[in-house]
Amino acid sequence: MRQIYLAATGQNRGKTTVSLGLLAALLDRDLATGFIKPVGQRYAYLDGIPADEDAILMKHVFGLPDPPSSLSPVHIPRGFTKAFINGEVVEDLGARILAGYEAVSRGRDVVLVEGTGHAGVGSVVDLSNAAVARMLGARALIVSEAGVGRPIDEIVLNRALFARHGVDVVGAVINKVDAEAHPTLQGILEKGLALHGIELLGVLPYVPLLSNPTLAILTEQMQGELIHAGIDLDRPVEDVTIAAMRAEHAMQNTEEGGLIIVPGDREDVIGAAAAHAAASRARAAEEGRDPRRVGPAGLVLTGGYRPNLFILDEVRRADLFCFLVEHETYRAASRVHDLLVKTHPADTDKIDAIKALVAQHLDVDRILERFAEPAAH
Length: 377
Hints:
By secondary structure, the chain is α/β, with parallel strands linked by helices. The protein has two domains: 2-210 and 343-370, Rossmann fold (3-Layer(aba) Sandwich), CATH 3.40.50; 213-337, 3-Layer(aba) Sandwich (Udp-n-acetylmuramoylalanyl-d-glutamate--2,6- Diaminopimelate Ligase, Chain: A, domain 1), CATH 3.40.1390. Helix content is 42%, strand content 20%. It has 16 helices and 15 strands. The chain has helices at 15-28, 53-62, 68-71, 80-85, 93-105, 129-136, 149-164, 185-194, 208-211, 215-221, 247-252, 267-286, 309-317, 329-337, 348-361, 364-370, and strands at 2-8, 33-36, 39-40, 43-46, 49-52, 74-75, 110-114, 139-145, 169-177, 199-205, 225-228, 239-242, 258-263, 298-302, 321-324. It has a six-stranded parallel beta sheet, with helices on both faces. The chain starts with a strand and ends in a 7-residue tail after the last helix.
């Protein structure tokens, strides 16, 4: 049985993207494939049982028959690390992982193991990615993102910790590569990693749909008041405009799908945005195009300033997303930039795009061939 342990060089590198696309590709090859996320940090409840969000995603997307307790045997709730350090956690967490792994691997040709963050994440509770991979006797594939020096440095650093635990790193995948802007980057990365004995097993191009947060994610991860949900909370934020200028200039600088961040007392800009959204949708309807994703994506009103009711009525009539926050404008823009982009079961367009992306750009058969060799012990 093949075991593929997916790790990353840090947060938001695209590990879940690779995991979902790779799982789809393996199942498309009629391989009986199991999945497990041994240690999870972000969790929700499925059938009353806590499970990592990625494990829930895979179960929903692929109809995995395994129970949440097997797909996600260990999760780290708030306060868990302090309790562990203070000796208050007495359960054998490793045994729980091994039991889950035994269940998901039974009768399977391949087991895809999705780690949590970089090689050292989980060390505080003695369950780092490197330690868990060693426990499972698995070999690792590391996911990083575009660049030259940084991804190579990060991959080499992570490989060193895996090696310290006796885990072989089979290769790396680089995500979010703009091939048009950097057509020679793949060759440079191949040579750079080869200098350290690491094989580049795939390059995934940058796709805005997969990297940009949706309006729903914004409302989930930022504190504020949803004044109006607009027409489509699943719409991705494709650009950000900080409207520190006159209304007409702000509209000129707003890209299609752009989020306008503006003080709540700049009613001229807010009214202009509502008019712009309404006009864009009217044109789309006349031209037979879908009016839901034209014009600006929405407004984030800053400073805690609430516009007058007349302006808010204009926003609602335009069906424009509008969210009020206490942060001042530049802090709010920074928070939007730092939003953690996760894939949810309802993101069907995004999931289809991930499957197609991995199928087209990763040599899955070569990955299977590399992982057919015995794991290091």
